[in-house]
From TrEMBL:
Name of the protein: Putative HNH nuclease YajD
Family of the protein in this entry: Belongs to the HNH nuclease family.
SMART domains: HNHc (SM00507)
Taxonomy of the source species: Bacteria, Bacillati, Bacillota, Clostridia, Eubacteriales
Source organism: Clostridium botulinum
Matching InterPro entries: HNH, HNH_nuc
Any one GO molecular function term: nucleic acid binding
Length: 141
């Protein structure tokens, strides 16, 4: 087994794992971040029974794989069920199956990077994601 030294506390940890002190620090950071958010309506939605049900339905339909990776001939497990049109932009599509896509962390990060560039880049990325869903339906469903 290969080990590494934690950059924060100096403990020896398995190379493919994070040290407990890093995990704890991330949890504390996220707890503070979440407490100071002002989008309570959107955040409470993600804890709702309706969201959990539709999220799990989409994961099952897509075989729990990242559609972005799959359409690029790669296989990755799903980490996020992503709203193509965000719930802040279009609350009425929050439970619309055609507005949801399974993505891995890497693809999800790339999508949000494009969303944050400009409104034009965001719209182009949304069109690309809708296209991936259509391609997936034709090829796999």
């Amino acid at each position: 087994m290969i080990y590494k030294q934690c950059n924060k506390c100096g403990k020896r940890v398995e190379a493919d794992k994070q040290c407990e002190c890093i995990i704890k620090a991330k949890k504390n950071y996220y707890k503070d971040y979440k407490k100071n958010r002002n989008d309570n309506k959107e955040q409470s939605f993600y804890s709702s029974k309706d969201w959990i049900t539709i999220r799990d339905t989409i994961k099952t339909k897509d075989n729990s794989v990242c559609i972005g990776c799959l359409m690029n001939n790669s296989i990755s497990n799903v980490d996020y069920v992503h709203h193509i049109e965000t719930i802040k932009d279009n609350w009425n599509k929050r439970l619309d199956k055609d507005n949801l896509i399974c993505l891995c962390s890497s693809c999800h990060r790339k999508v949000h990077d494009m969303y944050n560039k400009s409104s034009i880049d965001k719209r182009l990325m949304q069109e690309e994601l809708f296209g991936l869903i259509e391609k997936f339906k034709k090829e796999y469903l």
